[in-house]
Amino acid sequence: MHARTLSIRELFSTAAGPLRVPIYQRNYSWTPTEVHQLLVDVVDGMEREPSAQGSYFLGNLVVTRRDGDWELVDGQQRVTTLFLLLAVLGRRHETVPVLRGRLRYDARPRAERTLGRLVGGPPNPLDADEHDPAMLDAVQAIEVELSTWDPIDITRFTERLLDRVHVVRAELPDVDLNRYFEVMNTRSVQLEPSDIVKARLMSRLGGDPVALHAFHRIWMACADMDGYVQQTLTREDPTLRSEIFGEAWDWLELDDFAGLSERLTGSARVVDDPAPGAASMCLDDAILSATRTGADTPAADRSDRFRSIIDFPSFLLHALATFTTDGSVEEPRLLEAVLDDNRLIELFEGTATLGSRTQVEQFAVHLLRLRLLFDAYVVKRHASSAHVDDDDWSLQRVVKRERGRGRRTEYFMDYVGTFGTEDRGVLLLESMFRITYTSPRTMRWLTEVLAYLLHPGPGGIREHGLEGVLRQAARRAVRDAIPDWEDPPSGFAIPRIVFTYLDLLVLDHRRPRDRDFSFMFRTSIEHFSPRHPRAEQGIDQVSEENRESLGNLALVSVGTNSAFGNLSPRAKADTYQDTIVQQSPKLQVMAGIVRSAGTATAVWGDDAIVAHHREMMDLLRQDVDPTAGYLARG
């Protein structure tokens, strides 16, 4: 193989030659989680090599030469994500190389159309019916992440990404590409960090085959984040559901590891035929045991109705943060919890509470208990949500249903609203947090929620109590975001929690809460009075200070921000009424002020912005710091 090291700038340069994804390759399939992970890996790599000469190696690309193009045999998901990332960065920086024609997808017009419009069309060209939905989700995920960065950091990141991140482009000799691709993609299994953590924990179980099997079953059931654990743990034997989770299937009837092991390993084969050398199981043996039956889940029995808001490694870190041998967790420890899944192995190895067999068994029960709470009390998304900005949120718990009569009676799992009320307080708060803190590393709110849920168990959990925990977390975040109420941040420096919590407070003042509004992923700060207004009559003159104040701003999706463009506030309010309703309650208030002025043209000037700014700041301050009084009265 002929190999060459290339910087990202060189990889996409004209001199390097076009990259092509052949038809035998699958479509682009990375999810926002994987896109986010690539960004995190690159940033972490740069931080580990801070010197000007330091570089970060992003892996190998396997290619072959075809008609003057480089045909990607392995690495197309990374290359496509890098292309999408550069397309987004190229809107902000001229240093990004020209990307048009640098990446092609054979015989896939939607993918081709998406790539072409991203580098040559309007800033937001994306219609899901005409473009590749996975690529749209990736672009949105990148926009979400970059929206939380300082512009200076984005500039520095762009420069380092182009010149200090490298790949090795390895050219294949003349081989059977279909055979090579089959071997590369079907004959090897990559061991994930969570597999190694699992194996190391299992190695502390003393080689006991019953304990090993039970731990494995619990771990694999909890690892399926999109299913409810009552189903995933008992999929092979549904008759165990009542024994483990009680007659209502809603909590742990068996809450000790010995009892769970007895039910889960009732097979004589497991007890009488232990793995060779089990009594002194080493890491390699534990890994083999941990992965031996990992793919035995019948596809027809999977629950595909919901999607978790986090992946399993992130859930493990929340479990670690909330695990103690005596069941008590102090608030300072929760706030200091490290949620960096890149350090998963290190963090598990460094904890003093998982050194013995007893502690590992306790952790297995803790993991199962936490998943039951997570499934019932933490918001999910419906699997039918096609894009990252969909707002189809779900907060449901498992209920036991029956059908038939007499000997033909059978029982099945169904789902109902967790609290069974019309008030959507918890669902709105949790979905607000989810779209505000998009990185799993920043989801400390979720650690606090899970710690709160652990103590009373489901019988003692009340909606107002959980809502109170979420409110306190939001108020603390807003206080951190606005350390000085007399001199609040402005423009792009305003943290996203200020906008999202303010939207929730506006909703709170409507009785009942507006049932047509749901939080969606919104990453663009909209200037209601535009920074570069069109040459049209009737638009108000606004000072730069007021244009960048909270009174003139709202958080909207990338598409809405592009559609609004540089229209006047009057044109936005009149033309996009339905869009405004979907996007932001605060934006609805602003548009309502403009529309209430009737036929008057100049209605959103400095005076209106200052008045709205004071009203919104008062609303925030009265909720977050009610003893401080009203700004508007001062």
Task: Furnish the topology, listing elements before pairings.
Layout: E1 2-7, H1 8-11, E2 19-21, H2 32-48, E3 56-66, E4 69-74, H3 76-90, E5 103-105, H4 109-120, H5 133-146, H6 151-164, E6 165-171, H7 177-186, H8 193-202, H9 209-223, H10 229-233, H11 240-245, H12 257-264, H13 268-272, H14 283-291, E7 306-307, H15 312-321, H16 331-335, H17 344-349, H18 357-377, E8 380-382, E9 393-394, E10 396-403, E11 410-417, H19 425-436, H20 444-454, H21 463-481, H22 496-508, E12 524-527, H23 544-547, E13 553-556, H24 558-564, H25 569-575, H26 577-583, H27 585-595, H28 606-624
Parallel strand pairs: 2-4, 2-5, 3-6
Antiparallel strand pairs: 1-6, 3-4, 7-8, 8-9, 10-11, 12-13
Helix pairs in contact: 2-5, 3-5, 8-14, 9-12, 9-18, 19-21, 19-22, 20-21, 22-28, 25-27, 26-27
Question: How does this model look, in words?
Answer:
With about 625 residues, the chain is α/β, with parallel strands linked by helices. The chain folds into three domains: about 1-185, no CATH class; about 195-380, no CATH class; about 490-630, no CATH class. Helices cover about 45% and strands about 10% of the residues. The chain is built from 28 helices and 13 strands. The strands form four sheets. The protein has a six-stranded mixed sheet, with helices on both faces. A three-stranded antiparallel sheet has the order 7-8-9, with no helix packed on it. Strands 10-11 form a two-stranded antiparallel ribbon. Strand 3 (about 55-65) and strand 4 form a beta hairpin. Helix 25 (about 570-575) packs across helix 27 (about 585-595). It is globular, with a radius of gyration of 27 Å. Mean pLDDT is about 80; it is low at about 265-280, about 285-300 and about 630-634.
